[in-house]
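Take a record.
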Amino acid sequence: MLGVDVVSPIDYKSMFSFPQEQWKPFEFHNDDVLIAKDFNT
């Protein structure tokens, strides 16, 4: 066992399977963040 972390260099989707493009602003706990356009809030 090597004990290393590996991350794909190309990932076009977020952890929720939304494309990482076309962002919209959203306020989360008084912080302004960007979320995917198709993510329903």
Remarks:
- The radius of gyration is 14 Å.
- The chain has a mean pLDDT of 80.
- The chain has no helices and two strands.
